[in-house]
Design brief:
The chain is of the alpha+beta class. It is built from 17 helices and 13 strands. Strands 6-7-8-11-12-13 form a 6-stranded mixed beta sheet. The chain has a 3-stranded mixed beta sheet with strand order 1-3-2. Strand 2, helix 5 and strand 3 form a beta-alpha-beta unit. Helix 3 crosses helix 4, helix 3 packs parallel to helix 10 and helix 4 crosses helix 10. The protein is globular. The protein starts with a helix and ends in a 9-residue tail after the last strand. One of its GO terms (molecular function) is cysteine-type deubiquitinase activity.
Length: about 450
């Protein structure tokens, strides 16, 4: 393998040291976009690993079904409707990833008649060759064992210049996306549309592959998740860039369309910035240690602009990076200035005495909000329906991939806690809504793994 195919493979999988290991890991990703028989709009994941691509596609797909579709019964979907929404979703993700919106889009598809390593490069086909390529799959694809080398020997790059052309070709390739390796073909299409060098320039450690070469997890690389969610393959989840020992650490620069929350934040390993935590649509990818699932609702008030009290909570918490729920009283003046509150020294000292009557030297978040932003309504209903998606059969009841429905309560800091449970999914969601309570329609809480 040489040339563009080699560069692409090394970016995704790393440099090969053990071919048998690579084939084992690679096979976890050899699946298409397949809908569940039990839930017409839910994608199935066959093995651990490709959730890093399937979950973002599922999130965008849900957005297009819930908010771009006039069909009131969003859980019912005909085959033609599913075809249209899946292809539209794939185009949307590719458009997001396109480095320069005036540049072309690249689609990686099967090449005709390439069955040996002698041809192991990504050849170019003219834009007009957008025929149904499932009829052109080479005989090598019929073999039971379809490994790493064979795959990279049988792919080609097709370039289209406009969004209109992209939509047409992606729709024509519907069966290719659904068949074996459709997930990988789409991943490679996104990467080449973004540009290998552009991705390397955004990744913090360019030697780290997008997919773990030992276990096959895309979850371990935040670069891949960020690329699919935001179009930028940055390594971090905070807002903006940060400097550390003279090195620029890239983060998220704009409000994301889909959100991201992680259980790791509840364990204080990281902190998600507001651009991912507060997206444009009420759909969040949830990250556990090894897997990605999707939490979503139809309630748009969940992503409405911040109320003054929500802004105050966010700013207060920037001065409380360890999420202790309090700050030293020496920082009260800084917080008040950041919120454009009266911050004259005499007034600040008066507030210190009022908010810390016992002289402990700390200011608690609850009393601070109650003092300056009392009884402010966020606009979120007292309760609303929520849904959770997990693409792995074994993580679903009776091994049927279906959305788990529930009711969400978002309480105020002064409200008594219902204390429904203390599960990983609840701890993950509490990183955005500290006083959230969940009542699921099933006997058990949905799994993050």
């Amino acid at each position: 393998m040489s040339g563009p195919a080699k560069d692409l493979a090394e970016l995704v999988w790393g440099k090969r040291t053990d071919s048998s290991l690579t084939d084992t890991v690679f096979c976890r990703w050899t699946q298409g976009f397949v809908f569940s028989e039990s839930e017409p709009t839910a994608l199935e994941q066959f093995e651990g690993g490709p959730c890093a691509l399937i979950a973002p596609v599922q999130a965008f797909l849900l957005k297009n079904i819930l908010f771009n579709n006039e069909n009131s019964n969003w859980r019912e979907c005909s085959e033609e409707e599913r075809k249209a929404v899946l292809c539209y979703t794939l185009c949307e993700i590719m458009e997001t990833a396109c480095f320069n919106k005036s540049e072309s889009f690249c689609l990686v598809t099967w090449a005709k008649g390439k069955t040996s390593e002698d041809n192991a490069s990504i050849s170019e086909t003219p834009p007009e060759s957008s025929q149904r390529l499932e009829d052109e799959q080479p005989s090598a694809l019929a073999a039971e064992e379809f490994g790493f080398e064979q795959f990279h020997s049988n792919i080609q790059k097709q370039t289209v210049k406009t969004i209109g052309e992209l939509k047409k070709v992606v729709l024509d390739l519907y069966e290719t996306w659904r068949n074996k390796c459709g997930v990988l073909l789409f991943l490679y299409s996104v990467i080449l549309t973004k540009g290998i060098e552009n991705i390397k320039n955004e990744i913090e450690d360019s030697t780290e592959p997008l997919i773990d070469p030992v276990y096959g997890h895309g979850r371990q690389s935040q670069n891949l998740i960020n690329l699919l969610l935001t179009g930028h393959a940055v390594s971090n989840i905070w807002d903006g860039d940060r400097e550390c020992s003279g090195m620029k650490l890239r983060g998220i620069h704009n409000q994301a369309t889909m959100g991201f929350l992680t259980l790791m934040e509840s364990l204080r390993y990281c902190k998600v910035g507001s651009f991912l935590k507060s997206p444009k649509f009420p759909i969040w990818i949830l990250g556990s240690e090894t897997h990605l699932t999707v939490f979503f609702a139809k309630e748009m008030t969940l992503v409405a602009p911040e109320s003054p009290s929500e802004q105050a909570r966010r700013i207060f918490q920037t001065y409380d990076p360890e999420d202790n729920g309090f700050i030293p009283d020496t920082l009260l003046e800084d917080v008040m200035k950041a919120l454009d509150l009266v911050s004259e020294p005499e007034y600040v000292n008066l507030m210190k005495s009022k908010l810390d009557p016992e002289g402990l030297g700390i200011i608690l978040l609850g009393p601070f909000l109650q003092e300056f932003f009392p009884e402010q309504d966020s606009g979120i209903p007292d309760s609303f329906p929520v849904y959770h998606y997990n693409g792995l059969k074994q993580s679903n009841f009776n091994e049927k991939v279906m959305y788990v429905t529930g009711t969400c309560l978002v309480l105020g800091f002064e409200d008594p806690m219902v204390r429904t449970d203390d599960t990983p999914i609840k701890r993950c969601l509490q990183t955005k809504w500290p006083y959230i309570e969940l009542l699921w329609s099933t006997d058990r809480s949905p799994s993050l793994n």
